[in-house]
Batch of 4 targets.
Target 1
Amino acid sequence: MPQTKTIESQIQSMPPKPDMASRRPAPYITPAGQQRLNSELRYLWKEKRPAVTKKVAEAAAMGDRSENAEYIYGKKQLREIDRRIRYLSKRLDEVVVVDRTPPDQNKVYFGAWVKLLDNDGTHKSYRLVGSDEFDMHETYISIDSVLARALLQKRTNDVVEVRLPAGSQHYQITAVWYGEPGHS
């Protein structure tokens, strides 16, 4: 009689998946993404932090700080601002700005625009960008995403399979280009 495996033993026998939370994001960023991070850092350091510091000083001058909601909230805001400033400073030191197109512009690399045809016959276009800038536009996807990793190094007419929790999805690459979004 064949021996059946329990769910627990099946899970234990599976190869470990890389922990996405512990993976460092790819260090790549577009010039526009770098400019956005620099602008945010400059705003936080030159405008937001001084304004909050002034409010905290005014609230502290009112007396008892332990029951002063404005003081407590202002200190919390300062901690959040300082945390973001530290993150942005560190991130800007480690990012690599990709400002050139690759020699083989028929392949998908960082910064590429890719037009895909999905299983339902729907065309969608995406741009592969850094993890710090995919929220800049609805058509931007992080280079660290499952879809972007599947697309890397592929060419027009290649079909990629993306494994998702809900099942596999297939995409055909119908165009690859670099530059402005509408030049496919």
Note: Residues 1-20 have pLDDT under 50 and may be disordered.
Target 2
Amino acid sequence: MEQQQEKKPDQQHHKRPEAPVPVLKPGVKHVMRIANTDLKGDKAIFVALRGIKGVGAAYAQTTCALAGVNPTKKAGSLNEQEVQKLTDVLMHPAAYHVPVWFMNRRHDYTDGEDKHLLLSDLEFVHDNDIKRLRMIKTYRGFRHAAGLPSRGQRTKSNFRRNKGNVMGVQRKKVAAPAAGAKEKDSGGKGKGK
């Protein structure tokens, strides 16, 4: 028993090896600032751009192509002209003839323009849209206000956490036989006396 409990020297707790720190070439920045967002300099630029809210994989590739930047180039090795060009393409995609279907805010409610929103603008407009739906008392507005799905999903078994403190299914209590019934039954074995 004692032999099994004792640990052998080679079975001691081993510490997990620390993650290697990326070694960058001299002159390569660890953090890049593009479109008011800090991006990791050790990643490829098309991967790093996805760290900006409102930029997905396809939009990052398109931005790199329109700016004339190699998408696999490390973000930390970009020069100032490339950073400025990428920021300009991200902020003003219509000026670079990005197709309308590529934008995330087509036919805006307030001014009717096609836009691609990023960062805090995206969150602000999204919140305002939900407030407007609540104000005009649409079905979607009511569902957002209640914290329930607004696209027709069933809610019997899913979306449980959105419903608040709801009791689960409880088992019915078995009623104990009445005291008078026990006295009658204990009198004899048969049906009749």
Note: Residues 31-101 form a domain with the Helicase, Ruva Protein; domain 3 fold (CATH 1.10.8.50).
Target 3
Amino acid sequence: MQASVPSYYDILQVARDAPADDVRAAYRRLAQRYHPDKSPDNSHAPRVMANLNKAYEVLSDPAQREEHDQWIARHAARKSARTGLKTRMSRPAPLPDLQQRATRWPWYLLFATISCAVAAVGTVAFKSALPVPQGATLVSQDTQSSSTGLVLKRTLSLQASSR
């Protein structure tokens, strides 16, 4: 019964070629189930009942039923034409779910930042814990510009004293 185009037949859960007696029986069965007076706790009952009434109104009148059948045929033809266009034209693949990835990437960034910070602190701690070789001295070298007198570069290096 369920087709690609939702219709009044689907609302009443009958076949497209169902006789009027079957349509009436289906309407009564569903009206008994979804009537707002019979199920006051169901908040969707008034809307469902309105849909059932409209579907029965259309399918019980032969002229309206014929018009509805034509509408279904036109809608199905339009949909098949659009589907044909989709198969002829290639579309790019859909993007991955960026919402899900966007909520997770800061954790990776935080982990990488902490890892780099731990590595830097560990390197400084390791180098400062190493003893200075006996006889080595720290030498400071300043390079000054002759025209401006500014210090351009300052380096510290260990030089072993020659004995």
Note: The first helix runs from residue 8 to 12.
Target 4
Amino acid sequence: MWTLIKSLRAGAISAAFRTLIGAAGLFAGLAATPGHAQPVEYVRICSLYGAAFFYIPGTDTCVNARQIVDNQFAIARANTRAATGTAMAASLVNPFLPNGTNFAVSMHWAGFDGQHAVGVSGLMRIAGNLSFSLGLAAGLDRGKLNTFTERTQTEQGTSTPAESWSQVRVLGRAGLNYAW
């Protein structure tokens, strides 16, 4: 038993000694490196197209920071337009025209992805099984976007570009319906 304890203690001391030697070698290697590294170029300026253009890191693609902000606003605006259009289409529900009646009107509200719309539809029997339908929807396309791509430092703090919009959009439809 005593020899087992001695061998374990000797192995542990040997492992600790090897670790200490390895750490000393690593420290010596780090101390031998020069005190200054190569300068890092964080933003390469692109002079091909004028002021405010820079290279995307790791590529030879030259872009303008304002162009990136404009694209972010355009995408956000297109998303709200699509949501408003979806809400307007959903609000145009064709009314039911029972037998023995000649006119029907329906009004519906719909919402999609934060955008809302109201639609009014009408149906008129022309003759027998032929009817004419008409619908009109209005929706408020509204939204706001803040971007942190192009920040400006001012005396009052950091200024970030923001854009908001609000526009009434209209959708209409007309059609004939024949049933047999």
Note: The helical segments are 2-31, 65-91.
